[in-house]
Amino acid sequence: MKSFPCIAAIEIGTAKTVVLVGEVLSKKRLNLIGMSEVPSKGIQKGEVIDFKAASEATHAALEAAEKSAKIHLEKIYLAQTGGHLQGFFHTGTVNVNSSDNIVSQSDIDRAIFEAKQKRLPEDRVYVHHIHNGFSLDDRQLLEPTGVQGQKLTAAYWSVHADTKRLRDTIHLLNGYGLTVADVMVSSVASAKMVTTSAERRSGSLVIDMGAGTTDYALYQDGFIIHTGVLPIGGDHITNDLSLAFRLDRARAELLKCDMGKACWLKEDQNETFWLLRDRSIGDRSFPKKALVAVIEARVKEIFQIIHKRIEPLVDFKQLSAGVVLTGGSALLPRMHMVAENVFGCPVRLGENPSWVRDDLRLPPYSTVLGLLTQALSEGSPFEHTKSTGSQPLWNRLAKMLHLTH
Amino acid sequence: MQTQLSFDCPEPIFPKVKIVALGGAGGQVLNRIALPIGWTQLWLDTDLRSLNATVNGGESLTLGLKTTAGFSCGGEIDLGRQAAEENKQDLLKAFEGVNLVVILTALAGGCGSGGIVPVVQAAKASGALVVVFAILPFSFEGTRRISIANQAIANLRSESVGIIPLSNAHLLEGSKGKIALDALALADEWVQNFLEIFTQVFLKPAYKTFDWKDLSSLFGEKFGKTIFGFGKGSGPEADDQALMDLLLCPLLHLPGDASRADRLLLWIRFSPDFPFEVLEEIASKVRNQFSATQDLRLAFAVNNDVKASIELMVLGVIDLQTPIQSIKTTMSVSRKVTSVVKPANSSRPDQKEFDFLADALNERGFFGKTPSQLVDGEDLDVPAYIRQKIRLQV
Q1: Chain B window 145-174: which residues touch A at a Cβ cutoff of 8 Å?
Q2: Closest by alpha carbon to B285, among B230, B330, B226, B325?
Q3: Which pTM value belongs to this model?
């Protein structure tokens, strides 16, 4: 029996489901004791489309993780993605109560409470309130306690989800007998892993390109001021190749992984490739330019859509840390070149920190690692704020979704 | 008693046509092309030095002396717009009495992209029809300039003017192996061709001409995109050649464009040795190719100076309400194709011969059963290369 408490995190992606189990050694130290990764089923564009198939794959991943960690899991943290996630910026402003206008904790609690009160339509539920700092009489402050001022404003970027879709994902885990301790937006989880605090302060855009979705998070002055999800990912590149060259899905995926590049360079000029590559009769040779043209059209479009959404918020030339790419699909060669062309600023491929063990340092694991580390850290976006006296997010979610466990 | 009859034939009235160069790039194009007789010129720029260096006859007007003090706009659209608005009265005066204004401009900078709408508005307020040749930036000029150009085109579309975008990147696709100067001069060539053909079609007498009203009704009501293309052929298969040349005209294959028209003008100039039924066949094929079954107007002219030669021009618009269809493949132009005119008593519907790609826009592959992912009106599950009409070299 383990002497330290354990936490587990799960990412149910379109291509793979990853579970990590960690042993909590202290508030900032965690020992990874179990891991599993299984191909996902019944998930498309980050959402459950076949509950039975998704259940089987998820339960297989959880079982493998328990075996790997040699423990029995009870609670788990969930990374959530999907095109149904939307966000908005909202503030709450209160007058400082005390006669000497010194801000107290109760003023902060009231401002935070006000900032989270915007009503959502009936079929939507909040999943994440991301703190964007305070301002006191138009002065930006990280911590206003004890400072003199009259009007205190708390700002949040709040993410909400479709109730039914969120419920489907939570049910997958409830079906295994697990409680969902909390839910975190995937873009936030991966962004924290692949950026340094300096990069987050100076401004950066993190784009996580998975198989089913592309999630992005924009940092400015250390805060996430915008997140978003495009329900397009590596699977769309595969689908495009499948239709362009009349291949089945598996062959198109192999072609993409083996020969695919995100853009064309002069050195590819005379290169050709065989479509089936198994010496079968009827195999054909194509110029590589055709393959790259299909991929480039899709990749460029993804970046252009993100650029269009982010452009009103930030001048890309001022984004000191530039763009960071992560996720499995970001591993496609020359992806960063297409991104540089679209965004007009430096782009790098994100990597998980050096303290992560080698097999988890690749971009596909940044979301689940980020989720685990966030679950560990205090004052995380999970908002179990004792000072507010408010219920943990899970309890509120459970009530909203009428879940029992 | 003799009755004397006098026949006072009025002088033929030809439309007054003016070509306007807006900004430095527009000025350079106008400087390089040979202007057909009948056209007057107007050079517009905020940059005094550039204007002095390029003006080559005709009138010139420095825009926005108060706004930019004789300097360029520095790529600022707002400055370009303010500069043009500063001289609105001068522009109205310059366009007085003009029937058609053709504007040459590049849309990535400040003067062109900012000044184009006020200039167009002044021309229209004077009662002129307007066609804009908009030179678009290369992809390597950066996303900001491309974004400026796209916004300028969007602003222009709401003014209901003919817009012929000259995408340098697209025109260059067909110029591999050409030396740089020749490749970059492709935009000049298209403008030159437009002016020459337009002069032939509208300013010279012919057997059956287009009335000025034809052009007015084409550009008169609110419309979406403009279609313009031309082709020529000579020799024993001149008609097939001309049709093929027309269909392959790069101006009909620009990104975002579609080869169909709700209202279309077709002009055919032929050598005297052409039989009439060949002309009928050409008109039918063009009508089917562009689906211009509702409103296709024809004009003919004879070129007595050549033999076995034919030239074609199409100028049309797509109405705002009409959804844009996929681009069509090239038509079969063999002489063996029999007349496509239906027998009068046939009950078969017209076969859309060339819509091979019509279904491609519905191809979603393994996302077929999932709901559409609509962004800016496009279903993102349909392959990007299909929606962007990218031709794969296989």
Answers
A1: 147
A2: B330
A3: 0.55
